[in-house]
Design a protein that fits this description.
Elements: E1 5-8, E2 13-16, E3 22-32, E4 35-45, E5 53-54, E6 59-63, E7 68-71, E8 74-75, E9 82-85, E10 92-94, E11 100-103, E12 109-119, E13 122-133, E14 146-149, E15 154-158, E16 166-170, E17 176-177, E18 180-181, E19 189-192, E20 196-200, E21 222-224, E22 227-229, E23 233-237, E24 240-250, E25 253-256, E26 259-263, E27 268-269, E28 275-278, E29 285-287, E30 294-295, E31 304-307, E32 312-314, E33 317-325, E34 333-343, E35 349-352, E36 356-360, E37 371-374, E38 381-384, E39 388-390, E40 392-395, E41 400-403, E42 405-414, E43 420-430
Parallel strand pairs: 6-13, 14-26, 28-34, 36-43
Antiparallel strand pairs: 1-2, 3-4, 5-8, 7-11, 9-12, 10-11, 12-13, 15-20, 16-17, 16-24, 18-19, 19-20, 21-22, 23-34, 24-25, 24-26, 27-30, 29-32, 31-33, 33-34, 35-38, 37-41, 38-39, 40-42, 42-43
């Protein structure tokens, strides 16, 4: 085992704080009265990076077919940090801005997910193990994964599971604590040895000091296809004080889930409305907006920057604007998102069309229909404010055979967004063209 790590043979959990980097191939055996099975586990302990670090828990267990979420936590990142992942289990999605993995898993199994946080030129990665089971006898932790602490105020969190279970926890000290304990918890809190973590937080810093990619969302994610979009979202990202890992165990199995402690924040933010604009050219439209107002507990307004900024040219389609505030004195900051939708509802303009065309009939063999083949493609053109030149299509098309008499020709121009404009002219085929005498 890597130095600093321990295995709980009964619960099947490897835990601890590694003290040496390197690659560690490990052979694991599991046995019951029917025999022994073997497997290989390759653990890689990376040296601590100089840039942002992913500090959230490395494993979580959920119930197949039930809503699930996991919050990615980082340290040393900026508000520009973005999350990406290798393919997630079916039913789950990752929000790149908030770092929230959420959804409803559809399959049982163990899934190894690589998390990557990119912050400017800096990139860091870590592996997250997600386990989902539909076995109702295996306990799944159902209590909240977040606790908000205010210095001098009493806090209480009862650990719950959806099946009978006994609880322990792996603290921020990397030790698995069974029975009453205060170790590895924020200062002032204690575990009663059964299922209750409570106490009066007395400040200090007993843990992660993370303030990036942590979220307390004020709205519910809406799944659209395979993409999760958070419309009109205000996210307050408070400072993370400590991370611990509750463990639920019974005779049928073990599950675990993170419990992240954050320092409560009085930060508030206004919500800008979504904006709809008509495209003014091929690049979309220039959109101006007012950035949200963020207010801390002392009535101060930290500066806010938005990406894309007000006055930018937004392309046709829906763009998410992400506004980040500077951190307040506690390290908390706000992220506010809204949509700018640039639409193209303006039909093309038919810029050239004949007023009418009159031609003489062609000589035809006896018994054949009388008329003429008429070409007019060069006389048709159309343009669109977004697409530029578009094709003007005629019906009957240029080059068709027109019978004697007058035939109405319809002209249609359609842009790439389905906007259509129409016009018409007449093609008249006569026996012969009368020549005017000149005096």
């Amino acid at each position: 085992m890597p130095p600093g790590l321990t295995i709980d043979a009964n619960a099947g959990i490897i835990y601890g704080i590694p003290t040496s980097s390197g690659n560690f191939p490990i052979t694991i055996s599991a046995w019951n009265p029917c025999g022994t099975g073997f497997g290989n586990l390759a653990l890689t302990v990376q040296p601590a990076p100089s840039g942002p670090q992913i500090i959230s828990s490395t494993s979580a267990t959920g119930r197949t077919g039930q809503p699930f979420q996991f919050q990615v936590l980082t340290s040393g990142a900026t508000s520009s940090a973005r999350l990406s992942t290798t393919p997630l289990p079916s039913g789950l999605n990752a929000d790149a801005v908030t770092g929230l993995i959420s959804g409803t898993p559809t399959l049982d199994g163990n899934f190894s997910i690589t998390l990557t946080v990119t912050d400017g030129l800096a990139t860091t990665s870590a592996v997250l193990q997600l386990t989902f089971t539909s076995d109702p006898d295996v306990p799944i932790i159902t209590s909240s994964d977040s606790g908000f602490l205010v210095p001098g105020q009493f806090f209480s969190r009862r650990l719950t599971a959806d099946a009978n279970a006994s609880f322990s926890y792996i603290g921020s000290d990397g030790v698995k604590h069974v029975g009453p304990s205060i170790e590895g918890l924020p200062p002032g809190l204690s575990f009663d040895g059964v299922n209750l973590i409570s106490g009066t937080y007395n400040g200090g810093n007993n843990g992660a000091n993370a303030n990036r990619l942590t979220a307390n969302q004020s709205s519910t994610a809406v799944a659209i296809g395979a993409q999760v979009i958070h419309p009109n979202t205000i996210t307050i990202r408070p400072r993370c004080i400590a991370i611990c890992q509750p463990v639920a165990t019974n005779d049928n199995g073990t599950s675990t889930a993170p419990l992240n402690f954050f320092e409560g924040s009085n930060l508030t933010a206004s919500q800008p409305p979504d904006i709809n604009m008509e495209a003014t050219g091929p690049s979309g439209a220039t959109v101006n907006f007012t950035a949200p107002t963020v207010t801390d507990g002392n009535g101060n307004n930290p500066p806010v920057s938005c990406n894309p900024p007000s006055g930018s040219t937004f392309p046709v389609g829906k763009t998410t604007v992400v506004c980040n505030s500077a951190a307040d004195s506690s390290g908390a900051y706000a992220i506010v998102t809204f949509f700018v939708t640039v639409q193209d509802t303006t039909p093309p303009v038919i810029t050239a069309i004949p007023t009418s065309i009159t031609v003489a009939k062609h000589k035809t063999a006896k018994g054949r229909p009388q008329g003429a083949t008429v070409n007019f493609a060069s006389q048709l053109s159309a343009t669109d404010i977004v697409d530029g030149p578009v094709t003007a299509r005629a019906n009957p098309p240029s080059g068709s055979f027109f019978p004697l008499g007058s035939t109405a020709v319809g002209v249609t121009a359609t842009d790439s967004h389905g906007n259509t404009t129409t016009a018409s002219f007449t093609v008249t085929v006569v026996n012969k063209i009368k020549k005017h005498k000149h005096h």
